[in-house]
């Protein structure tokens, strides 16, 4: 096999947020760094490129955000009502939504390092702004909810553009159209990476490898094998390149698989969204996130989840899966004129599929669902709605009574024309199964021992998310474990270099 002309201290496999966090962190420590990205230059950046840029950190209180926001003017701070959100709240959220299954040591790293990592990202040119989807105007105040008040400037596109620029400035080498295929080891330590480029294999010598090449959500075969046959039909919301290659490579090299291999993050997405993420239309424009304010029915006109169980940030990652279980994997989000003005920006886009009607009967016809059943669902729901103060910025407890499934918050009657129905299906975002790493991002073998010079970051880290996940944690986890893996790899490389 051909050998590449140059050797490296650190090779990072993957080209998303976790990969570039790792590459820049290692480069900052003086390492010679190569990033190997499977995508072409037109299809680079992974799922990170497709994101809304929402990023969850333990900011503490509003003061903690002053040096983070680049767009909020001093005079606007008086108008902000910001709940406290520190390490404890973040950690508790992870444990709550994963039913206590998240690996405590990893959750601790993520939550404790989130804020310092945001400051580090800023120091490398990543810009953060107000997350406009996470507050409601109330008594002339911006009332934030859900622990996610920050997003990256220009979403995932802005994030990745900042990383590419910085990597270039720092002298990180990047190979596009290059797929990592296997790890080369000697005496239980990494010595190289085999890659495939233009159909040709070559070996690149290196002292360490950081695997940051995502999960297996874009592999139809692996989705069916690990998550279930029905996942064949899921829309892939992000890159086509995340087919689990890094997981295969790591396991083949002795890494321990861990975490929730049978589960994934999935979101309700526009029924007519592209079947796989379109790099010409990034920005997460097909998701549909305002359902806690409305109702969801399936193709038979029947409700199947508690739309108002919690804020969207804590239910959306699992409601995609519920949609997949419905006939034809199809559902409709319903809103009447009372709540229509409160919907998020994605409902305004020309890409949004919608039917609009002046009566419930007309709506059922346009949705092509059984009219009698649909009307019964709506009338039964309306009759069960309890009195109470409606407030979308808090869990208002305005609920239904005697209805299954209940609507536990934000239950308003559905009775004010015009009525809107948005057809949705299940879009898979990323998979939860990964490989075992310790709190230094070192990849562990079956004896719980680090494999010399092998690290993992981002979606490849197993054991953090089970069943569900607090929105905005994917980017944060990628950055935290990316930065950490770069630092640990640099320390390792220095130690083996000194010994030599
Ligand atoms: C539509 C959408 C919206 C989202 N919105 C948010 C959000 O607002 N906030 C949030 O926190 N999370 C969000 N997520 C989740 C988020 O994208 C991920 O959690 C995060 O980006 C993972 O980062 P990563 O670097 O691990 O993976 P990725 O960004 O997916 O990067 C993986 C990289 O590896 C490359 N690769 C794959 N195989 C190989 C190989 N064999 N060799 C070389 N390279 C390879 C891929 O091309 C890609 O560049 C969203 C995801 C999607 C799809």
Distance between the termini: 26 Å
Q: What's the name of the CATH homologous superfamily of the largest domain? A: FAD/NAD(P)-binding domain
- Which CATH top level class of the largest domain fits? Alpha Beta
Overall spatial form? globular
Uncertain stretches of 5 or more adjacent residues: none
Helix/strand-derived category reads: alpha/beta
Bound molecules: flavin-adenine dinucleotide
Q: Given the structure, what is the number of helices?
A: 12
**CATH topology of the largest domain, anyone?**
FAD/NAD(P)-binding domain
Number of strands: 22
Percent of residues in helices? 25-40%
Report the mean per-residue pLDDT as an integer: 96
Oligomer: single chain
User: From the coordinates shown, what is the CATH architecture of the largest domain?
Assistant: 3-Layer(bba) Sandwich
Q: Largest beta sheet, briefly?
A: 9 strands, mixed
* Beta-strand proportion: 15-25%
Q: What is the number of independent domains?
A: 2
CA-atom Rg in angstroms: 23 Å
Give a written overview of the molecule.
The chain is an alpha/beta fold. 29% of the residues lie in helices and 22% in strands. The chain has helices at residues 17-28, 46-50, 62-66, 87-97, 104-123, 155-170, 220-227, 245-252, 316-324, 360-367, 371-384, 473-499; strands at residues 2-3, 8-13, 33-36, 80-81, 128-130, 135-138, 141-144, 150-152, 173-175, 178-186, 189-197, 200-211, 235-236, 257-258, 264-270, 295-298, 331-335, 355-357, 419-431, 434-435, 442-444, 450-456. The strands form 5 sheets. Strands 1, 2, 3, 9, 10, 11, 12, 21 and 22 form a 9-stranded mixed beta sheet that branches. α1 runs parallel beside α12 (473-499) and α4 (87-97) crosses α5. The longest helix has 27 residues, at 473-499. The radius of gyration is 23 Å and the shape is globular. 53% of the residues are buried. The model has no long low-confidence stretch (mean pLDDT 96). The site of flavin-adenine dinucleotide has 43 residues, from α1, α2, β10, α8 and β19. This is Tricarballylate dehydrogenase. Its cofactor is FAD. Residues 9-473 form the FAD-dependent oxidoreductase 2 FAD-binding domain.
């Amino acid at each position: 096999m051909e050998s590449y002309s140059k050797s490296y201290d650190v090779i990072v496999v993957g080209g998303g947020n976790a990969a570039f966090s790792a590459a820049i962190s290692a480069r900052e420590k003086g390492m010679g760094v190569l990033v190997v990205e499977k995508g072409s230059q037109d299809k680079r950046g992974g799922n990170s490129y497709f994101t809304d840029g929402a990023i969850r950190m333990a900011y503490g209180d509003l003061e903690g955000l002053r040096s983070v926001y680049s767009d909020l003017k001093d005079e606007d701070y008086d108008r902000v009502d910001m709940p406290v959100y520190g390490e404890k709240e973040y950690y508790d959220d992870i444990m709550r939504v994963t039913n206590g299954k998240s690996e405590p040591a990893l959750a601790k790293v993520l939550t404790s390092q989130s804020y310092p990592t945001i400051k580090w990202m800023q120091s490398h040119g990543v810009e953060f702004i107000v997350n406009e989807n996470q507050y409601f105007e109330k008594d002339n105040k911006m009332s934030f909810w859900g622990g996610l008040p920050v997003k990256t400037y220009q979403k995932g596109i802005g994030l990745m553009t900042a990383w590419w620029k910085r990597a270039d400035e720092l002298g990180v080498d990047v190979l596009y159209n290059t797929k990592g295929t296997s790890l080369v080891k000697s005496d239980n330590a990494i010595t190289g990476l085999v890659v495939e480029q233009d159909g040709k294999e070559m070996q690149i010598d290196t002292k360490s490898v950081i695997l940051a090449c995502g999960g297996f959500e874009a592999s139809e075969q692996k989705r069916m094998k690990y998550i279930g046959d029905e996942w064949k039909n899921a829309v892939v919301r992000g890159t086509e390149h995340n087919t689990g290659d890094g997981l295969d490579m790591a396991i083949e090299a002795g890494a321990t698989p861990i975490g929730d291999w049978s589960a994934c993050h999935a979101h309700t997405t526009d029924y007519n969204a592209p079947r796989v993420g379109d790099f010409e239309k990034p920005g997460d424009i097909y998701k549909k996130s305002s359902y806690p304010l409305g109702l969801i029915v399936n193709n038979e006109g029947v409700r199947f989840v508690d739309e108002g169980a919690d804020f969207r940030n804590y239910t959306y990652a699992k409601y995609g899966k519920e949609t997949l279980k419905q006939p034809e994997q199809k559902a409709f989000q319903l809103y009447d004129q009372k709540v229509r003005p409160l919907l998020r920006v994605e409902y305004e886009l020309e890409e949004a599929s919608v039917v609009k009607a002046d009566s419930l009967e007309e709506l059922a016809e346009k949705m092509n669902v059984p009219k009698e059943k649909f009307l019964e669902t709506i009338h039964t729901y309306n009759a069960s709605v309890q009195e109470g103060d409606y407030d979308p910025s808090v869990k208002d407890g305005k609920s239904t009574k005697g209805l299954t499934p209940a609507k536990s918050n934000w239950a308003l009657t559905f009775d004010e024309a015009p009525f809107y129905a948005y057809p949705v299906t299940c879009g898979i975002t990323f998979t939860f199964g990964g490989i075992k790493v310790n709190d230094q991002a070192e990849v562990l073998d079956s004896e719980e021992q680090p494999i010399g010079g092998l690290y993992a970051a981002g979606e490849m880290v197993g054991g953090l998310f089970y069943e569900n996940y607090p929105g905005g944690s994917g980017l944060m986890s990628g950055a935290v474990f990316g930065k950490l893996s770069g630092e640990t790899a640099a320390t390792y490389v220095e130690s083996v270099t000194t010994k030599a």
